[in-house]
Amino acid sequence: MKRSKRLFQYMQDHQQEFLEVLEGAVRRESPTEGDPNDLIACRDYFAGLFREIGFHVTTVKSLDPRFADHLLVEYGAGAGRAAEELAQWLKTRGRFPVPQWEPSVGGASRQLLFGGHYDTVHEKGVFGDSLWNIEGDHAIGPGILDMKSGDVQVYLIAKAFQDLGLMPEGARLAFLLTSDEEAGSYGSSALYQALAARSKAAFIMESSVGVEGDYIGGLKCGRFGRGNYTFRAHGTPYHSGLNPTLAESGLIELARQAVRLENMTYFDKMNPQTSEPETLTIGCTCLQSGNAGWPTVPGDGTLTIDARYSNAAMAERYDQLFQNLDAFNPKVHITTEGGIEKPPFDKDLPGNRALQVLAKEVGGELGIEMHPSVVRGGSDGNFTASTGCPTLDGMGTTGGHVHQLGEYINLSHLAFRSAFTAEMALRVLESN
């Protein structure tokens, strides 16, 4: 029997164990900005699971004090070395740039990096008493798809390697479980980049992609970059009853900017220089100015936007435009805060392409046609890929209603998704 089929059989035989472990994680509600004790309880739960099966476990301090600490677990040759190297890099952080992946370092590494997070978007209590339900082919609960099921997959994959004697000699698994992905990874993005630079590849255990995520063979091979910007208008207020035309209105200025910026959106426009299609989306997310009922035309105001770019060159080009936004009214001054939050994850980098080819081969062995897709949402894969580390995302489970009440995973897909990721991991670790 082929190894991939043995892994599939193992995952089928251990599905009940998977669900029991997952239920424990889901019942430990862990909203990103919730009670710190809830986040600690969830992190400690995962730490205990991995420690029990022989992982080296390290708590890594968040780089942003607003968020809880992270978890780095390692298994295999030199377990604990990734934590040591990360600690050494953190001592020099600020004096040296974020490291980049090099074939002579990352490419020669025997370390595979898994990426996950234990925080969720769901406020504690919104699911009421229904924190865990099985209904037909669905398991339902807060954060079950995004992404506690993906986290538990790594646990079961490691157990399979142990029980079946498959862990390659000299290889190491490193799994970073963060606390702040849903808020933008402000306290962990640099950790991902530092670890990715010393890893052969990175697998991000976010959920799959498809129509409500229900296609068994979906993957995410690229992601748009994201920029968050706040524009502040500084004009001159005036009494709205005496003579509103004498105001240099920040409200009017930002309203005009909002229309202008959203009209910049375009889809699949061919770049004549690269002969590649490009997409830019700009969403105005908040406009604040003045006070309802006050007899004043406001001079000041703020406008925030969410910008998504399909490639790095676009991100830099539009970032420059947003940082130097021209006002319609020369008597209103505009300042810009923010910038590129997540760099684009380019599907066409050679290492990423190689993983996509491998995914189709492994999926075919298991009887499933894999469909890698580029998506506009961001993840920690943006950060690992930005270093040049070969990255494949959406390696987790399938399901739907993500970030909603009723969030679910498909039980009938679990064995395939876990066996597929396990075989992919072994192929990468065994490659030269």
TrEMBL record:
Any one GO molecular function term: metal ion binding
Top-level taxon of the source organism: Bacteria
InterPro entries: Bact_exopeptidase_dim_dom (IPR036264), Peptidase_M20 (IPR002933), Peptidase_M20A (IPR050072)
Record-annotated membrane-spanning stretches: none
Gene3D superfamilies: 3.30.70.360, Zn peptidases (3.40.630.10)
Entry keyword set: Hydrolase, Metal-binding, Plasmid
PANTHER family in UniProt: ACETYLORNITHINE DEACETYLASE (PTHR43808), BLL0789 PROTEIN (PTHR43808:SF9)
Descriptive protein name: M20/M25/M40 family metallo-hydrolase
Naturally occurring in which organism (per UniProt): Pusillibacter faecalis
